[in-house]
Amino acid sequence: MAERDADLVRGALAGSERAFHELIRRYQRPVFSVILRVVRDPSRSEELAQDTFVKAFLRLETYAEERKFSTWLLAIAHHAAIDEVRRKGVRTTPLEEVPQDCLEQRRDAETPYRVTEQHELAAVLDEAVRQLRPDYAELITLRYEQELTLEDIVEVTGLPVGTIKSSLHRARKDLADYLRRRGWSTS
Amino acid sequence: MTEKRREPSDEIKRALQILDNRNAADDDVEAAFRTLARLLPSSSPRHDFSQRVITAVCQASLPTGRRRLRARRPAIIAGLSGAVAAAGVWALLWTTGFVQLLGGRIFLLVVQGGVRAIHSVSFMVGMWRWMERAARVFTAVLSSPEMLSTVVVLAVLSVLSLAALTRFVSSSQRRSIGCS
């Protein structure tokens, strides 16, 4: 049976490298994804993801077990990303500049035709998300890629739930418009 | 500019239809976006990311009272390496003659300690015998008739002298009060 996050946190506090290594293994993808959506620079995102885990380790005793470890950690990642954008602004990276080992296409299609079609749509969607404002792109990632609840997003971002709902609504509209403009429409 | 229309798969087609429908229910829109988000490429850091984080954590200065991370080796390996290390140290000390010297010293100390313990026990026995003799002599002297009569005479003399002294002190006090 997989160890609970709270047990791993206790292990890491007691000095177990294995426990902290397991926490990194579990959450490196969500942390990196969220930061990459906001900062849009893969190498800088990796540095910020590393800083996020180091900060998390240094503040580990402040983590309360009744909270979700994932939201506690993503809140640290959110602040790291937002601080970076405030300091340096946002850099837009074309898809072909993103290292291939950072992007892993999901392989759940059956036929070569579907694979090609889904790759195309995935690329357009990725473009569409990167066209969004960084805060909208982050909310889209948290809500639909990481599948967080609205309450969890409130905890991660510190924004009121009404603001999150209206931002998500606008982000969805922008995404749908972009897809339509790129020919991904049924009407 | 709008590009030519695509022919997506059924699931994606349904999701796109929901996005096109401006009157679609919120739950359907959420589900449609979840379907589309599953297509997004999953981004992950490079393969050695976790090891680099561990290295950075080990180099960071920790708050007071916090333990550093350490890799825990399995108990069997730790036990075996401990036993091998102990055997190595023992062999080294044996070949240099240190063990023999140390063993001789320890044996000598044990023998000396034993001899001292025996000496102290025999001294205690001698002391006990001497005290017993002294007590016997004392009780014999005290219980003789001559000694008893001497003690009685001394007691009577002490009582008489005490009475005389008390009388003398009280008469002198009365005299001093009358003068003032």
Layout of secondary structure:
The complex is a heterodimer of chains A (about 190) and B (about 180).
Chain A lengths: L4 H9 L3 H23 L2 H17 L10 H20 L14 E2 L7 H20 L2 H12 L4 H8 L3 H21 L6
Helix pairs in contact in A: 1-2, 2-3, 2-4, 2-6, 3-4, 4-7, 5-8, 6-8
Chain B lengths: L9 H11 L5 H12 L4 E2 L5 H11 L15 H21 L2 H45 L2 H35 L1
Helix pairs in contact in B: 1-2
Principal-axes shape call of chain A: elongated
Based on the structure, what is the oligomeric state of the protein chains?
heterodimer
Count of domains of chain A: 1
Order of helices and strands of chain A: HHHHEHHHH
In helices, the fraction of residues of chain B equals over 70%
Name the CATH architecture of chain A.
Answer: Orthogonal Bundle
Q: Please, could you describe this protein's structure?
A:
The complex is a heterodimer of chains A (187) and B (180). Chain A has helices at 5-13, 17-39, 42-58, 69-88, 112-131, 134-145, 150-157, 161-181, and one strand at 103-104. By secondary structure, chain A is mainly α. Chain A has a single domain, classed as RNA polymerase sigma factor, region 2, helix turn helix motif (Rna Polymerase Sigma Factor, Chain: A, Orthogonal Bundle), CATH 1.10.1740. The longest helix of chain A has 23 residues, at 17-39. Chain B is an all-alpha fold. Helices cover 75% and strands 1% of the residues of chain B. Chain B contains 6 helices and 1 strand. In chain B, α1 crosses α2 (26-37). The longest helix of chain B is centred in the middle third of the chain and has 45 residues, at 98-142. At the A-B interface, α2, α3, β1, α5 and α6 of A face α1, α2, β1 and α3 of B. β1 (103-104) of chain A pairs antiparallel with β1 of chain B.
